[in-house]
């Protein structure tokens, strides 16, 4: 640990910022690769609800066209 101490003392504030950004980026890549997802606005659920509503509307329209064609 003696060899690391001078490096830590000479690191400037921008160096600490760069180190922090690097650590966060590596953590995001590692956790993303392991399957962890962070979705604070629940966008996946909203996207799924819109897709299900679209499928329901398309099914209703298809049924209406079929009934119209039979009549």
> Could you tell me how far the N terminus lies from the C terminus, measured between alpha carbons in angstroms?
86 Å
Mean pLDDT: 89
Class by SSE composition: mainly alpha
Low-confidence stretches: none
Quickly count the helices: 3
**Biggest sheet descriptor:** none
The Rg value, from CA coordinates, equals 27 Å
Q: Secondary-structure element sequence?
A: HHH
Range of strand content: under 5%
Helix content percent band: over 70%
Shape: rod-shaped
Number of strands: 0
Secondary-structure map:
Elements: H1 5-10, H2 13-33, H3 43-70
Quick overview:
This protein has about 70 residues and is an all-alpha fold.
Describe this structure in words.
The protein is an all-alpha fold. It is built from three helices and no strands.
């Amino acid at each position: 640990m003696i060899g690391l101490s001078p490096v830590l003392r000479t690191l400037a504030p921008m160096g600490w910022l760069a180190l922090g950004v690097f650590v966060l980026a590596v953590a995001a890549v590692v956790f993303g690769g392991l399957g962890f997802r962070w979705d604070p606005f629940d966008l996946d659920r909203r996207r799924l609800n819109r897709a299900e509503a679209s499928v329901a509307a398309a099914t209703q329209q298809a049924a209406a066209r079929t009934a119209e064609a039979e009549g």
